[in-house]
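FORM 7B: Structural annotation worksheet

SECTION A. Query
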Amino acid sequence: MNVLAIDVGGTNVKILATGQQERRKFPSGPKLTAKAMVDGVKKLAADWKYDAVSIGYPGPVINGRPVAEPHNLAPGWVAFNFERAFGCPVKLVNDAAMQALGSYNGGKMLFLGLGTGLGSTMIVDGDMEPMELAHLPYKKATFEDYVGLRGLQHYGKKQWRKNVEDVVEQLKGALEPTDIVLGGGNVKLLKQLPKGCREGNNANAFLGGFRLWADGKRPSSPPAEVQASSAPAKKQSSSKKKKR
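SECTION B. Predicted structure
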């Protein structure tokens, strides 16, 4: 089965299909509707063959349907019929959940996506549970206000990095994961990863999209863009060397 994986973000919509070597993208933003997204994807993937679609959606999803409009895009997503629009089977999950699924190596993993907002997902022994930690109270606002794009712009890189480290420590103490993955487009702005974390890769969202149609099995030969996710992560802030 050829799968078209779509990562819908607040800044760009990125796509990759089974057997393709390079992802493609186009801008999103507050004026992007669900129909405009589908039209843009179909135009961009016109020369690709696919039998099914996976969508990483920037908001809460229950039973494969969005239950709230995205914060950083135009409204109209909740009632939209994606299968009818694409003309093929569609699986829709939270965007952080899709990247988390592609990052999962076993155990109890917490995934945090540092992007326009703050994506969050837990996977425990293979069972995935998307969460909406971004809008929980934190200090004088919410987690997202301190470690999302608004926090980065308001506090600057130096303080933002400290905010990320503090948020990770709080969530680690509350959720007790055995593995913490930091993904999203802004993870590259961290000079060092908080202790106990490893760096994810945005390409893992595509791997997660493929896994949605593989019943949890890893594709035998993921595209080169996805294979890049195995590149060495940033050095951890801990002075101890990581065991091999």
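SECTION C. Observations
Residues 3-98+203-228 form a domain with the Nucleotidyltransferase; domain 5 fold (CATH 3.30.420.40). Confidence is low (pLDDT under 50) at residues 216-244.

SECTION D. Sign-off
Analyst initials: ____
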